[in-house]
From TrEMBL, chains A, B:
SUPFAM superfamilies: Nudix. Residues 117-241 form the Nudix hydrolase domain. Belongs to the Nudix hydrolase family. It comes from Eruca vesicaria subsp. sativa. The keyword Magnesium applies. This is Nudix hydrolase domain-containing protein.
Length: 278, 278
């Protein structure tokens, strides 16, 4: 789906004021430790727990980190940009409704509230004879860089169905979804959650769709880590390779927090926080 | 968060025309096979794969099922209800944009497209000394029925943070998120995805928030399966008990498809399709 990928991972124009400090004891960081991620032996793949302290109830503050005040100028998903009711056309006011805690856009005519929620990006990590299928992007952002086939989940489809649809649209590939592999939240930039499934090709008939310049099967030691499109793809492929080295593929949950002030194009400027596994 | 739970799981008023037929070989069904879910020994907990056949590209059609035509009157998330642009207030038109496949609401003034996407409901399955924490709902739908603390993910927070926040708001409980436990998509009703984490109480200081009448730790053989609020909670608790019986807690992905024509309050009128595990 064109629109999904046009915005996918795009962080330019967003002003992130809130700074999320990582809890070092529970952080797995890929921060440019190595050019070859196969050599990322220094990253402890520890399972950890995430604690909640109600005395610091800001969502931008975690136990073990310095408290960070809620910022009134947090721009990602800024509710103040919602100026009209999409149902009746009435002008909105921006208030915290009774019983809630967040600023919302409320219609001054019909009183409906326009809620904003993070979006799911669904995709496939396709394995075929010890190779993985990647697509070179034909759209911005990250034009010309490599990615997994992925895009926004649509209403009326499951995450697995959406991942297969995106794979068909971007790589012309017919796949079987085999198992869930990762959920990677990116709460501060783009307000996205990546849900990635392991999948297998049903046949070798794949070809780039309009959003892709090229689709190619890469041997595991030839994955173009220096030309990947997004941090989420970098993390997913690293976790996959590390699992393979250990001999077992597991499900991964984690939060990707970009390093404050880093360029959106610097896909290694992040920490993978609160990496949890079953 | 009040609003989240007020809509959570609500399916009344939705007209579901599209009928999703289950693929029997890959279906795990809890369809009223037993009053006591602990005795659900007939349900095969097989891991299966989900296939995508591009010749049947409707998202309401799956290989192995009868093809179901796309319905123009699919009401859940109906884009036609979006009549105005929320950014500039201009009237919308409803068309399929170039390069896309779905009907969208497009502003006739500024040309922006109002995309609709499924929402994530995040929650905690809290274990404490072989008991689980449930909340009796003080709001509709399912007022007076038992649920896990859960609600809509907000922008700016990770799924684990959202699950802890909801737990605090609904049960006054401070928890540690231990691991991801389940992703359950409900694509046809409510357009939701449940993301449930296993969690542990940090202490025994919990008490019902405004959305709960009561919060209580239930022994595993006393879980009120006849008084649960939603199918998603029924599935989650069943999977948990079955995992415990097997001696290992795993991550579960699945799709909950309500039985066509069933009452929203009949939480056992569903099939759990495409149950996948790592």
């Amino acid at each position: 789906m064109l629109k999904a990928v046009q915005i996918l991972g795009c962080s330019s124009g967003l002003t992130i004021i809130s700074q999320r400090l990582t809890k070092s004891s529970s952080t797995v960081s890929f921060l440019s430790k190595s050019i070859n991620p196969l050599k990322l032996s220094t990253s402890p793949r520890k399972t950890t727990t995430l604690c909640f302290n109600p005395t610091r109830m800001s969502t931008s503050s975690l136990p073990g980190s310095d408290p960070v005040p809620k910022s009134p100028t947090f721009v990602a998903g800024d509710v103040r940009k919602i100026k009209f009711c999409q149902w009746c056309g009435g002008p909105t006011k921006h208030e915290i409704p009774d019983g809630e805690e967040k600023l919302r856009a409320i219609c001054t005519h019909c009183s409906k509230i326009a809620y904003q929620n993070p979006k799911m990006v669904v995709g496939c990590l396709i394995e075929h004879e010890e190779k993985v299928l990647l697509c070179k992007r034909n759209i911005q952002p990250s034009h010309g860089l490599w990615t997994l086939p992925a895009g926004y989940l649509e209403v009326g489809e499951s995450a697995a169905e959406g991942a297969m649809r995106e794979t068909w649209e971007e790589a012309g590939a017919t796949v079987e979804v085999v198992s869930p592999f990762a959920q990677l939240d990116i709460p501060l930039i783009g307000q996205q959650t990546y849900v990635i499934f392991l999948a297998k090709l049903k046949n070798l008939d794949f070809a780039p769709g309009p959003e892709s310049l090229e689709c190619r099967l890469f041997a595991l030691d030839e994955i173009p880590f220096d030309s990947l499109a997004f941090s989420s793809i970098y993390v997913t492929l690293n976790l996959y390779l590390e699992d393979l080295k250990k001999g077992t593929l597991k499900f991964h949950y984690g939060t990707i927090n970009k390093r404050p002030g880093s360029s959106p194009s610097d896909i290694r400027a992040f920490s993978l926080d609160y990496h949890l596994q079953p």
